[in-house]
Amino acid sequence: MASYYDDHSLEDPFKARKKTNNSYGGSSFNPDLSHFMPREETESTSSSPSSRSPSASGPDVGDFRRLAEMFGAFREREEPLGDEAHQEFLDNLITQLMDEAGASGKHGPPPAAKSFIRDLPFVPQKDLKRDEACIICNENFQENDSKAGVTKLPCKHHFDRECIVPWLELHNNCPACRAEVPSDDPEWNRKRREAELAKYAAEAEIDQDWMYS
């Protein structure tokens, strides 16, 4: 599948960087996620707009681009391993993020609710399969020494918290199956209520037709 850069005849910045910088060639890559993590999970004391997390000021174009770069680094690391399916998955996420950045974040789903992100459950190692890996970074949970730990979404997909929180700060859905999670966005909640009412009305009409048929 062609990437965002191929479709737009642009040079892939992640591949270009690889030619001059091999800093991601090791067995482990830990990007700086302090910009994305909720304020209570960071020790940053800066009050400048550029250092505030999306949970404090709302996502902007830079947030989408930074997350695309983070996923690009994961994809770059995957290339020598030959996992084409995972590379394509990351490429699709990067394409979406770049498109959203181009639209100034006005298109696409809203961020997940702050309370939902704050209350993400911690999954103990004993509840994880030995060969299970994070869907985003593809690192084995048993070998990952991240202090942030592992979490899961209501759809049952598991992720490193360091990987899924930045995504949820910008999208109220699972990056794997697109199942939605709660959002604080008023417009999204209004449309969801309208959809639920329409569904109930349709079901009631079907039940009524069945009774009198």
Automatic annotation (TrEMBL):
**Gene Ontology CC, one term:** cytoplasm
Location of the region described as Disordered in the Swiss-Prot/TrEMBL record: 1-62
Low complexity compositional bias, start-end:
44-55
Q: Upper taxonomic classification of the species?
A: Eukaryota, Fungi, Fungi incertae sedis, Mucoromycota, Mortierellomycotina
- Regions of biased composition (Basic and acidic residues) lie at 1-15
Q: What name goes with this protein? A: RING-type domain-containing protein
Q: Which domain of life is it from?
A: Eukaryota
Domain named RING-type: residues = 134-178
Question: Do you know which InterPro entries this protein is assigned to?
Answer: Znf_RING, Znf_RING/FYVE/PHD
GO BP, one example? protein ubiquitination
SMART domains, alphabetically?
A: RING
One Pfam entry for this protein is zf-RING_2
Recorded hits in PROSITE patterns, A to Z, give: ZF_RING_2
**Keywords associated with the record:** Metal-binding, Zinc, Zinc-finger
Entry's Gene Ontology molecular function annotations: ubiquitin protein ligase activity; zinc ion binding
